[in-house]
Every structure is written in C-alpha cells, then in structure tokens.
Design goal:
Helix 1 packs across helix 2, helix 2 runs parallel beside helix 6 and helix 11 packs parallel to helix 14. Strands 2, 5, 6, 8, 9, 10 and 11 form a seven-stranded mixed beta sheet that branches. The protein has a five-stranded parallel beta sheet with strand order 15-14-16-17-18, with helices on both faces. A two-stranded parallel ribbon has the order 1-7. With 434 residues, it is an alpha/beta fold. The chain has 14 helices and 18 strands.
Length: 434
C-alpha cells in the first residue's frame, strides 16, 4: 500500500506528499539496508584481510596436515513418504517427500597452532583461514558462513594487539545458535561423540570449551553425558590460542533446499542421534516419585510460548483426550523429565517448535506436526526429516494463522479439529498394522 501510494504520488507529480510518504518506506526497508551495510562491511574485511574458508573438503583432502581420524561408519538415511490429509497433501508433498541420503564416516581432526576468536569462538588455522566446522553446520554452503562471522571477530583477529590466552589441547562447543534448543542438541552435543573418539584413539583428553552462562537444560544435558560444567572452560575470552584444536565434524547435512526444485533440506545423522540417546538414557537417574508417570500419547502445548501458540488449544486437547492424549508444557519439566517423557512415548502431536527435538530420545514413535499458514522451506522439513530418518511414522497438518498475525513463520495456529482427528485415526491404524 505504501509503495502504491508512493508511485501514485510520483505519477501525479504531487511533490508535497513525498516527505510524508518517503519516511515510512524508509522505515520499511531499514532492516534490509542495515543487513546490506553489515554484509558489505564483512565482505570488505574478508577481501582486504584475506580470510580463506577452510571447508570440510579441505580438511579431508589435507588429512595428514590436520591429522584426520575417522570413526563410526557410513550410513544410508531413508525417508518415507509422510502421512497428510485433504488440502494439505498437494502443498506439502512438494517439499516433504521420500529420499535417500548417504552420510560419509564422521571424523575428528586436529588444527595445529589454531586460534579461537570472537563471541562465537570462530576457529582460525595458523595461516588465518576460517575453519568452517568450528562455526555452523552449513558446510555445503560456504557463502552462508560469512553471515555468521561478525565484524568484531575479524577485527579482533586481524587488528587486536592483546595477548591471547593459551591452551594446549582443546575442543569448543561454542556455537552461534547454541542457545536454541534444537541446535544445542543437534549441532553441539552430537559432536561429543567425535571428541570421545579422539580421546579413545590418542589417549589425550582435550579441555572442553563451553558457553558461559549456560541455561539449566544445557547444564543438565552435559551432566547426563558425563561432563560437569565446572570442569569445562567457559568462553569469556575474545581470543585464545590452542596448540591443538580438536574439531569433530558436524553430524548434520544441510541439503540444497530451494523453492523451485525438490530437495530434502536439513538432515541430522540418525546414528549420532542414537548415540546421544543411548548415552543420556544410560545416565538418566531413576524416577523418584509416582509424579513422573507420563502418558505414552502426548500433546505438546506451547501455551507458555510467545509464538506459534495454538489459538484453539482447548478444543485440540478435548478432541485428543478420547485417544488417550495428555497435554504437557515442556517449560514446566526439567531436561531429565523431558527425556523421560519422550523416551516412553509412542505418539506425539505438537506444533512446529524446538520441543520436537526431543524425539531423538524416543524409540518407536508416531509424530504429527502442526503448522500455521506461513511455515515453509527448511523449517517445514526439519522435524519431518528428523522423524523419518529415525524410522518414525510422520504426518503433518497445516492449519490457519490469524489474518492479522504478521509474524509469518512465528504466527499462531488455528487447527482444523476434524482433520486432526482423522489424521490421528489414520496414523493409529497404520501403526497397528505394522
């Protein structure tokens, strides 16, 4: 509407209205202008200071230089066709569809005379190259890496005269998105398997560098993996030199999603998920009270969230009750209780959100994911691929979002109760036939 009025003003040569119209248009685009300015500044520093990106392929090709050690085995990930109903079928099948993907053997490597720099502990080799596997899992899209390397990081690396702290052998779990539950589980904790493979092969136990001010669920998850946060090194420094920086490979493949051609989107290694599940469940304390009894059919409520809440949640809970579902708000449970909840579940219904990450702790599960009007692309495939990669039955249902809700991906959801009931019935029947 703003652009329409602006164009009409130009066409009619009504110059007096230009200042009044130009300001809101500028405000509309200021976020984009801010991003473009930041992007150009980062690229300027990359160009003028010569920060080469050391990709996963570079590490593997130069396996002797980086002392690459393989562990585990290759895996073939097979994703079945999802179960959907009615009007959602045609739209969703364009994005969520069957595929096969081969993961190569995971590895762990040493980067000699390395340096960790900046708020996200970006790793640089001795020549000043950026080691992509110290930052984000988008190793197949190197161009995207530069979005997450701040000007501050490059300036600290190239211009700072401060004497950095020095460590002998260390591994970093610091990650740009580690405060997000899914990324902590999928991109941080799964890498500990590589760290332990290195220790088993060399007899050397690297120091573990973690974020400072961890959330309680991060602390609890580390403890269940056998790591006391007090024994780790919190990341406070702007620069740390590491004689041997241990870099486990990310256990996730990004895929090549685009809106024109079919592609499978992000996929987490099922073997990595199973390793994580086994380790955490083996250290899970015994239930101390009868209050820890959970229903095997669970509905995950987002009533305490600020986004992607279900507007008609009361009706959803009422409709699911005859099937045996019980509603749970994950904010009310500790990390251990969430693990226990999902480990005994056989069916889960949940709106799209980080809480679905907990399906990695399940064994034989049926998943129904609820979407609003606007969720698309990698977000639409994230938990679909995680579920199907783990061999679970997966279905999804796209509802509506309030017309006045402009948050797109984060908009609230109105669920079609009749379609949900039909989908639950259908997937229960499929489950009983297997």
């Amino acid at each position: 509407m703003l652009l329409k009025n602006f164009n009409a003003t130009l066409k009619n040569k009504n110059w007096k209205n230009l200042p009044r119209l130009f300001y809101p248009i500028l405000m509309l685009y200021r976020r984009r202008l801010k991003f473009l300015f930041r992007r150009r500044s980062i690229l300027f520093l990359h160009k003028n200071f010569g920060s080469k990106i050391i990709t996963r392929d570079d590490l593997l090709i130069n396996h002797e230089k980086y002392h690459v050690r393989r562990f585990g085995c290759e895996e073939l990930v097979t994703a079945s066709e999802p179960s959907t109903l009615g009007k959602t079928q045609i739209e969703i099948e364009k994005i969520i569809y069957p595929f096969k993907l081969t993961f190569g053997k995971p590895f762990v490597c040493e980067v000699p005379d390395a340096e960790l720099v900046g708020p996200n502990a970006i790793g640089f080799n001795r020549d000043g190259g950026i080691v992509s596997d110290t930052s984000i899992a988008l190793f197949s899209q190197v161009g995207n890496l530069k979005k997450y390397i701040s000007i501050r990081t490059l300036a600290l690396k190239k211009l700072s005269r401060l004497s950095p702290t020095k460590l002998d052998t260390a591994c970093s779990l610091v990650h740009p998105w580690s405060k997000i539950y899914f990324h902590w589980i999928a991109d941080c904790l799964t890498r500990i398997e590589g760290l332990e493979a290195y220790q088993a092969q060399t007899g050397i136990k690297p120091a573990l560098i973690i974020e400072s001010n961890l959330a309680s669920w991060q602390i609890d998850s580390l403890k269940l993996l056998g790591y006391e946060p007090d024994d780790c090194i919190p990341w406070h420094s702007s620069r740390v030199q590491v004689k041997k920086l241990i870099v486990p490979s990310f256990r996730r493949h990004w895929g090549d999603y685009n809106t024109t051609y079919k592609s499978y989107g992000p996929v987490v290694s099922p073997l990595a998920c199973r390793w994580l599940r086994q380790r955490i469940l083996s250290n899970l304390p015994d239930a101390e009270s009868e209050q820890l009894f959970f229903s095997p059919k669970i509905f995950i409520s987002r009533r305490k969230a600020v986004q992607r809440r279900i507007i008609n949640e009361d009706k959803v809970i009422e409709a699911l009750a005859p099937f045996g579902f019980v509603a749970y708000a994950l904010e009310e449970l500790s990390f251990s209780e969430q693990v226990r909840l999902f480990s005994q579940a056989n069916m889960v219904v949940a709106p799209h959100g980080s809480g679905l990450t907990n399906i990695v702790f399940s064994q034989n599960l049926t998943v129904i994911e609820l979407f609003g009007s606007y969720v698309a692309g990698p977000s639409l495939t994230l938990f679909a691929n995680l579920s199907r990669g783990l061999g679970f039955r997966y279905g999804c249902l796209r509802g509506q979002s309030p017309s006045q809700d402009s948050r797109q991906l984060h908009a609230d959801i109105i669920v079609d109760i009749a379609e949900l009931g039909n989908l639950v019935t259908k997937m229960q029947e499929e489950s009983s036939c297997q």
